[in-house]
Amino acid sequence: MKKAPDVGPEPFPGGHRDQLLMISKMMPVAIAAIR
Amino acid sequence: MFGLKSLLRRPPARPEALWLDEPDALARVERAPVSEAAKQAARDLIVDGFTVLRGAIPGELCQQVIDDYARYGAENADYVAANLDELAREKRLVNFHHWSKAEEAIATDAGVMSVLDFLFGERACVYTSLTFKYGTQQPIHRDTPHFATWPGSRFFGVWTALEDTPPEAGPLMYVRGGHRFPVEPRPVFEAVQAEHPDWTREDQLNLALDRWNGLIIQQAPDHGELVVAPIRRGDVAIWHPQLPHGGSPAQDPTRTRWSVVVHCAPEGVQVHQHDRFFTHAGPGAPPDRYRFREAHGRKIALAGEVAYQA
After folding, report:
1. pTM of the model
2. N or C: which terminal CB in chain A sees fewer CB atoms within 10 Å?
3. Can you tell me whether residue B232 is helix, strand or coil?
4. In terms of DSSP bridges, do strands B156-161 and B256-266 run parallel, antiparallel, or are they unpaired?
């Protein structure tokens, strides 16, 4: 059994990931004009 | 709407900011004795909080990482099978650069690291990495809680596309210029503690993380527009530690989005985690957490083994 990596949890460990994802999805998105 | 002058007048998001966040940063770039590529990366990070080094990593090396991952999977089949998500896709793999020589070579690439040396103003090293077979579809967030440093903002996410990332794979998205507004962590954690004094510290910290990132999501649209970066195999994207970013929704979640993100810091600055981010008051940095090995002339932190992230 491998040990859990020493890098902490993913960014949304508090049970609100889906809720916050839904809010994120409501932001209008543009395509970046990167060089 | 988001003019350069008004952006540069905003205060840095944390005290003891990177030189890139100082008001005279653009002038300092022009005076610096570095390559034009490094200068352009710095300009991009000052203004947008995001830059792309086009074709910085050879395509063959990208393919070697994918091949190494297949060998790792074959040698650890039970472990891989125990770490699938609800769509039967592998989760993200932490610290694969300790197993794959190809990924180690990407993590320590001389050209990319020399740009990081300039961006930090100090010699850069490798802290940890994440290897992705699929897009994350993560909500917008800042990395700062997971890569907390003293002084602040001594961290860059360095993301290499191992294959082209078409829209259906859920490419990286970020809030252009959203790296400068401050959201203080301590009041968020103290409010959670006051509301839930009977919770474990871990549960309190987890809720504080969600709430803090919720504030980032709420405030980010006032500071810049959300954009998707078209990125091709071998391109290296670098983002400011305070840049709100995430994985855009995948139209086809079974489509791969092979990529590696290497987390880099200056050699003399240790990276800490969300517990310290919300609670450490100083003075100075918390005690050191890890030691280093060396490869290709760069220090690589011994901070956790190769493992899928829960």
Report:
1. 0.90
2. N
3. coil
4. antiparallel
- Note the pLDDT tens digit of each residue in B259-289: 999 999 999 999 999 999 999 987 789 999 9
Do B128 and B289 meet the contact criterion of CB atoms below 8 Å apart?
Answer: no
User: How does residue B60 score in pLDDT terms, banded at 50, 70 and 90?
Assistant: very high
* For B271, nearest residue in chain A (alpha carbons): A7
Closest C-alpha among B173, B238, B239, B240 to residue A28: B173
Q: What is the pLDDT of residues B105-117, one digit of tens each?
A: 999 999 999 999 9
Q: Is the peptide bond before B187 cis (omega within 30 degrees of 0)?
A: no
| C-alpha pair distances (Å), B53 with each of A15, B42, B98 | 36, 11, 24
Chain A CB within 8 Å of residue B128 CB: yes
Neighboring chain B residues of A11 at a CB cutoff of 8 Å:
138-139, 141, 143, 145-146, 209, 213
Cβ of A20 within 8 Å of Cβ of B94? The answer is no
**C-alpha dihedral (B275, B127, B226, B184), degrees to nearest 10:** 30
Query: Domain B49-308 - what CATH class?
Result: mainly beta
Residues in B touching A34 (Cβ below 8 Å): 52, 229-230
So where are chain B's domains? Answer: 49-308
- Mean pLDDT along residues B165-189: 89
Q: Which of A3, A9, A15 sits opposite B307 (nearest CB)?
A: A3
